[in-house]
Fold:
Amino acid sequence: MTVPLIRLNDGASIPQLGLGVFRVDAGETERVVSEALEIGYRHIDTAKIYGNEEEVGRAIAASGIPRDELYITTKLYNDDQGRATARDAFERSLDRLDLERVDLYLIHWPCPARDLYVETWRVLEQLQQSGRATSIGVSNFLEAHLQRLLDETDVVPAIDQIELHPYHQQPSVTAFARAHGIAIESWGPLGQGKYPLLELPEIVSIARAHGKSPAQVVLRWHIQQGTIVFPKSTRRERLVENFDVFDFELSVEEQAAITGLERGGRVGGDPNTAS
Ligand code: NDP
Structure:
């Protein structure tokens, strides 16, 4: 199975499908990541706050897969923002992952009340220059936050990782990001299981028509829009299922029917107030 690569604004490429490990217990992470790597996943999305970077690193080391074939993302958490702390937070993430560089380092949330994301971004710019963060980006940034980085700093983020699934598609952030060459990663691509997305009749009937599962149809919808996804599962059969989305194509009408499910329904934190 070949996962398409998306080319970023800094010239690097990212596999369009990966595995997310939010809410994967540290005790289970090494097994889950090892199974994913066996299945063929090469892109793993973790974060300091997930508490499982060390276990992700152990699975990578045990796999024997050459480092250049893997794509590893981690994120700087809110209380590490600021010039004095960001660099140290990055070093500790690398130590826990037991890696010399990450492919992508993200500011996890803008936390506008802290007003530190601009100076934190300056640190990420230096980390990229040092070669230890190949690409740098942000997460949960809305237009105003992106605009400040565009106005006040030098490097345009390669990526904005935002909540994005059929009920909450954030069309204005997505259009703004794309207009500035910023790729979109969809977090919670399956709605985090917080609403019955996979039981919606529109999704179920499309899945039947293709002989695929509802989850595969939703992931395929993301892929055909050009967003990058890394659904989380701790179950091997679902890791296999979620990876098997490249042998069918949704029609324009099917894509539109799923896009028509938009409800403006955020299931996660609000970027303007998350602190
Ligand atoms: P997802 O939308 O990936 O949903 C995960 C849920 O769906 C779990 O309950 C999982 O259960 C279930 N599931 C997975 N595959 C299937 C399937 N084939 N059929 C039915 N159910 C399925 O939510 P996440 O929040 O995990 O988002 C993905 C990743 O995005 C995260 O792991 C993390 O890396 C990132 N993220 C980033 C955030 C940010 O602020 N930047 C915030 C949240 C997530 P089970 O495990 O039992 O299979």
Remarks:
- Residues 5-259 form a domain with the TIM Barrel fold (CATH 3.20.20.100).
- The chain has ten helices and ten strands.
- Residues 48 and 92 are 9 Å apart (CA to CA).
- Residues 20-22, 45, 108, 139-140, 161, 187-193, 198, 215, 230-235, 238, 241-242, 268 surround NDP (CB under 6 Å).
